[in-house]
Design a protein that fits this description.
This protein starts with 7 loop residues before the first helix and ends with a helix. The radius of gyration is 22 Å and the shape is globular. The longest helix is centred in the last third of the chain and has 20 residues. Helices cover 37% and strands 15% of the residues. The protein folds into two domains: 251 residues, 3-Layer(aba) Sandwich (Aspartate Aminotransferase, domain 2), CATH 3.40.640; 132 residues, Aspartate Aminotransferase, domain 1 (Alpha-Beta Complex), CATH 3.90.1150.10. Strand 5, helix 7 and strand 6 form a beta-alpha-beta unit. The protein has a seven-stranded mixed β-sheet with strand order 1-7-6-5-4-2-3, sandwiched between helices. It is built from 13 helices and eleven strands. It binds pyridoxal-5'-phosphate (PLP). Pyridoxal-5'-phosphate (PLP) binds next to helix 4. Keywords: Lyase, Pyridoxal phosphate. Pathway: Amino-acid biosynthesis; L-methionine biosynthesis via de novo pathway; L-homocysteine from L-cystathionine: step 1/1.
Length: 387
């Protein structure tokens, strides 16, 4: 069967399996190796193609994981790298050279901005930030040396939805690559490559790993960029361990069922929060009144469990009373695991300020019972009132 006719749920279960080569085991075992012994001098010299050459150039474990992600992404090639942030920097550096210019969405994940303003600038690459809602208007920002447009949709912490097909059309007209951090929707809910993205990025640390116990990133390329991506990864000596790829592939098997639950739980929490007097508004593209809902409905097939809450103005003491004492919402960075999390959102915007009435919280709805989660938030609001 052509993989394109399969649904993500089916691909997630079967993709990347190598049972016949591993005594029938369903899962590819963990290979830990540096040296791979070659049977002949010709094989050692790579004159005779050997399937595996050297540890960091790939093992059956990394190959299983990468092939599985490539199938879900509809990509020509997926590479696995040590972190999500490394997937972002690797994808950017695959495309640019000194003297180039890139367009970066203003609502990007903070460390991506830090990379552009620091290391990338030092390498002679100039960054211009653009409004996430710019759409086809991005054309006005193109320079003769603009080599890539970087998207992240919905935006980090503020959840603006970008018009990716409109941006991709303009970028391709100018010969620029389109890169997207697609960690929020995952390839299950947004098929980035089909919407014009050339290099699709996942912080596999989040939903693909799914269990808060692995750090990993993936970059998935279409035919045009596959070879360049692979060459750059090998030139840099980048490698994700077999143990981490094994865990991430195990996570991938259940990604669609977990996501459906995260989506449902997130929406229930968001709708409950919307009715609270302490809440000014909710930042969640799947809510009908959200400014990004129209494009979300057009392009996405689902939502994850991550969304924002803008509170009405309150004192620091009241915010502290709310946050301290939550039982089911942990305070910590990252998201995409099975557990609920909450953090105050600290965002930097340089193109257009994000107008928030009060503190902005980012909630990750985990897989717990929503009644228990709501009771926990309600107790938090009681503490807020009493403070
Ligand atoms: C967490 C995150 C990353 C970085 O992933 P790490 O594995 O923590 O480096 C990148 N993009 C987004 C949107 C993220 O939330």
């Amino acid at each position: 069967m052509n993989s394109r006719s399969k649904k993500p749920e089916t691909i997630a279960v079967g993709a990347g399996r190598m049972s016949a080569e591993h005594f029938g085991t369903v899962n590819t075992p963990v290979y830990r190796t540096s040296t791979i012994l070659h049977p002949t001098l010709a094989s050692l010299r790579n004159e005779e193609a050997a399937r595996y050459q050297y540890g960091c150039l790939g093992t059956p474990t990394t190959e299983s994981f990468e092939n599985a992600v490539a199938e879900i992404e509809g990509a020509a090639r997926t590479v696995s790298v040590p972190t999500g942030l490394n997937a972002i920097t690797t994808a950017i550096l695959t495309v640019v050279a000194a003297g180039d210019h890139i367009l970066m969405v203003d609502s990007v994940y903070g460390p991506t901005r830090r990379f552009c303003n620091g290391a990338l600038k030092r390498m002679g690459v100039e960054t211009t930030y653009y409004d996430p809602l710019i759409g086809a208007g991005i054309e006005a920002l193109f320079k003769p040396n603009t080599k890539l447009v970087f998207c992240e949709s919905p935006g980090s912490l503020t959840f603006e939805v970008q018009d990716i097909p409109a941006i991709a059309e303009v970028a391709h007209k100018h010969g620029a690559a389109v890169l997207m951090d697609n960690t929020w929707a995952t390839p299950v809910y947004f098929n980035a490559l089909k919407h014009g993205v050339d290099l699709s990025i996942q912080a596999a640390t989040k939903y693909i790993g799914g269990h808060s116990d692995v750090m990993l990133g993936t970059v998935s390329a279409n035919e045009t960029y596959a070879k360049r991506l692979e060459t750059f990864v090998h030139d840099m000596g980048l490698y994700a361990s077999g143990d981490d790829c094994f865990l991430a592939l195990r996570g991938l098997r259940t990604l669609p069922v977990r996501l459906a639950r995260h989506w449902g739980n997130g929406l229930k929490l968001a709708r409950w929060l919307m009715e609270r007097p302490e809440v000014s508004r909710i930042l969640h593209p799947a809510i009908e009144t959200d400014p990004g809902n129209k494009i979300w409905r057009r392009d996405f097939t689902g939502a994850c469990g991550l969304f924002g809450v803008v509170l009405k103005p309150i004192s620091e003491a009241k915010l502290t009373a709310f946050m301290n004492g939550l039982k089911h919402f942990g305070m910590g960075y990252s998201w995409g695991g099975f557990e609920s999390l909450i953090i105050p959102a600290n965002y930097v915007r340089t193109v257009k300020t994000f107008q928030a009435e009060g503190p902005v919280l980012r909630i990750h709805a985990g897989l717990e019972d929503t009644g228990d989660l709501i009771a926990d938030l309600e107790a938090g609001f009681d503490r807020m009132e009493a403070a």
